[in-house]
Amino acid sequence: MKNVRILLVEDDADFGDSFAIILKRKGYLVVLVPSAVKALERLAEERFDLVISDVVMPQMNGLEFVKIIKEQGMDVPVIMLSGYGNVKEAVEAMKIGAYNYFLKPVNQDEICLTIEKAIELKNLKWENEFLRGELQDLKGNMFLSNNDVMKSIIHEAEILAQSDVNVLIMGESGTGKELLARFIHDSSRRSSCPFLAINCQAYVDTLIESELFGYKGGSFTGAKSKGKPGKLELANGGTLFLDEIGELETATQVKLLRVLENREIEPVGGLKPIPVNFRLISATNQDLEKCVHEKVFREDLFYRINTVMLTLPPLRERREDIIGLARYFLKIFTAEQKKSITKFSLAAEQSLLNYAWPGNIRELKNVIEGAVALAKGYKLEEADLRINCKQQCQHYCAGLSFAHAKRRFEKDFLQYSFHQAGGNISLLARTIGVDRKQLYKKLTEYNILGKADLAENK
Question: What are phi and psi of 338, to 5 degrees?
Fold first, then answer.
């Protein structure tokens, strides 16, 4: 790891100098101080990624030092070293907040691996704090939907957050599967622990196993000499999100199933199992039941990951949310790009509503980001969006028969018109020239009417 700054606290000058040299040779930036008092002074003035401290020192011992670090809210992991250690001391160090505890003389490979784990965990916590802040903002935009299906999904997600059951999120690419997984994690009792996401499609078959389970040093050609912890281990106490889980090879599926059953992992090249405790949320845009039928996805693993299934609707089926989402992204990107755009033109909003959004929320986000970059005035115009009828037709009708294309258009047309009419079926029937009873039947068939609408319009 480059540019990792370590504060080494050691009153034994000979040991401190030699250990600092070892750490520097490993690529770390090391500052050596002779006492906990001096260490606190440096921590108040400078940023350090990690502290390594002796336990037995004059003026202030290492345990008192760690207590002060934690009491002052310093977000820095501390590794303790002792030449006179015992079990009671080690337990006390861990209890007050030390990341790990080593006896002198220290095994170089072991402490370097521990340093890597500590830094990675610290970075993950920082990332989760940042994403949690983003999520709190998104809750008011992504998760305050006007769509009945989405309202139901969010309600179910809030309930699921209170348990540890495995969740499978289904939906097209770009519908917000990872965001929903983060929402569940951040609403759960595991929220203070890491949320780790891994896209199974992004790794070749030979690498996904080591990425998930980790590996011991020298276990295969190209492996780091000191090994690497896997995502299953790093997610301990938190949530592991496996995106595109349908892409896992059968051999990896078998290993994952064993982990879910036994709650322990065996790193590649390792001999000793490591206990793990994480919550699994998986996602896919594939039909996993079809994959099971075709013998490309294990049936037993499917049932393991599918304790509860949530299916996110595509954006074209939640048109009432398009403008709200677009306005949210407009706010984000005008701030990022330092522009003074305040709204969409009416023509631009109509264009957004008319487009099928085959790439779903991800595509909408990208379109708005590009439009903000191109816009010259105080509002976004239709031309800034760069979406057109030809492109719309290509996306909208791709791979569909005439009957299916006609049915999709009918549903989208009625959904949009229904919300434009404020949910008033009589007004809508007059506007589009359709018999009210026939219209009511169609709205019910396409599940456009919510429970409140059904009661109100009967």
Answer: 55, 50
Confidence of residue 88 (pLDDT cuts 50, 70, 90): confident
DSSP characters over 201-248: GGS-HHHHHHHHHEE-TTSSTT--TT-EE-HHHHTTTSEEEEETGGG-
Domain boundary among 397, 419, 442: 397
pTM value is 0.58
> Quick check: 161 and 255 in contact, CB under 8 A?
no
Asked whether residue 127 is assigned to any structural domain, the reply reads no
Residues 187 and 294 in one domain: yes
Query: What separation, in Å, do the N-terminal and C-terminal C-alpha atoms of the chain show?
Result: 66
Q: How far from the centroid of its chain's Cα atoms is residue 4's Cα?
A: 25
pLDDT digits (tens, 9 = 90+) for 109-144: 889 999 988 888 887 776 666 555 555 554 445 566
Residues 6+ apart with CB under 8 A from 398: 358
Burial of 323 (0-12, 13-18, 19+ CB in 10 A): middle
Token pair for residue 154? Answer: 């969010």
Rg (CA), the chain: 28
Largest distance between two CA atoms of the chain = 93
Tell me the HSE value of 37 on the side-chain side, using a 13 A CA sphere: 4
Q: H or E stretch including 92?
A: helix 87-95
Domain of 92, in residue numbers = 5-116
Q: Tens digit of pLDDT for each residue in 40-72?
A: 999 988 889 999 999 989 889 999 999 999 888
- Strand-pairing partners, residue 81, are 54, 102
Q: What's the CA gap between 408 and 58, in Å, rounded? A: 77
Distance of alpha carbon 241 from the chain centroid:
7
Angle at 168 between CA 166 and CA 169, to 5 degrees: 140
